[in-house]
Amino acid sequence: MPAEVAMPRLGWTMEEGLLVSWVKQDGESVQPGEILFTVEGDKALVEVEAFDAGVLYLPPDSPPVGSTVLVGTLLAYILAPGEAKPTAGSARPGTEPSVSPSSAPAGALTGPLAQLAKRPLAISPRARRIAAALGVGWQALTGSGRTGRIVERDIRDALTRAAAPEVRISPVARKRAAELGVDIERLAADRPGKRLTREDVEQAAALAVPAAVPTPPPAGAERREILGPVRRVIAERMLAGTQTTAPVTLTTEVDATELVRLRQQLKDDGAITGQRVPTYNDLLARLTAQALSEHPMLNARLEGDTLVYSEAVHVGLAVDTERGLLVPVVRDVQAKSVRQVAQATAALIERARAGRLGLDELHGSTFTISNLGMYAIDAFTPIINLPECAVLGVGRIVPKQIVVDAAAERVAIRQMLFLSLTFDHRLVDGAPAARFLQRLKRFVEAPYLWLAG
User: Fold this and answer.
1) In DSSP terms, which residues pair with 74 in a beta bridge?
2) What is the spatial distance between Cα 156 and Cα 160, in angstroms, rounded to a whole number?
3) What is the DSSP letter of 248?
4) What residues are labeled active site?
5) Residues 281, 283, 285, 288: is their CA dihedral positive or negative?
């Protein structure tokens, strides 16, 4: 029996994926463990392996590369040597055959298809949410998904049709509008409720009614791009981070002179030993982990009505990539040395920018750090990465003239840094959050303290 290859579910929230490419081509031999195709899921570009040996067969109705495909959609088969290709419309085990109603003769729906026709309309959870948000009644729609399921594009198509003005026009006027290049939809919008006649069309053309003759936009004026899976997930998570939490941001300015001096010493040592030089993110991740170990209320998450405190500190580092914002996770930072943290973060960032992160490397963080200092940003309000309790925003380190002894009226040039902590006030109060930020500030100003535990 042919082995089926379907669009996999790469995460609990994934409903569809982007078919990026086929590594194996139609008719090629396949061995278990070899890469078949690549998929862009919610956050990662994933290489999907074969579980069976045989010959890859892409049926004529296989979704094309570059298309968005629902989870579970049949993509291909792996055939045993000499095995016949499945016939078009073959049913998948445990499912009904996918038959287009327009291709079946009247009254021909029998057996499983008749049962399918009697079922309530099926709609994907994502399409249901979008329909509710946009006020689109989906019960009368015809789904374009597999087995007639209503998907997101059906909702958006219905909204587009509903927004278009109703055009009432005589056949002669329609033909004349085509000859004169008159936009009848715009003309109908200018004459709501009126049945357009030939005279209306000719008058619009003669008077050069702006609505009647569409003017093409200037070259390069607009560029439209459909949101990909990664961008959609980022949008949803950012919106959820602001709508389902009670975010409060605390900002403090820190004297990072000793932190800068420490990193310079690590650079000097790295030049001698050849070891990787930790970045400021690596140092801040290790200092943050130490502060979180002392203030576990900030290393928590909300599960239903239960607060869960994690003993381990898994730090998510916000990384800017060509595909959007990704947050790979450095695990057990509290148990790692600075150099171990540096090795882990360097490998994760490299894989993130190459689109080769595994799903386990994008989930399970207990605290997130977002650093915009390299873009000359001083302070900002980061958004909580749910279900975490808090996120730390890091600005640039910049030399400033600071009063170091007010009584003696003495000033000095110091390396100053802004830290912004956004926390969920549902989970933790302002005072404990402030104490955590105060402790972290102390560690940054005297980074050698954390060595004492």
Assistant:
1) 6
2) 6
3) E
4) 425, 429
5) negative
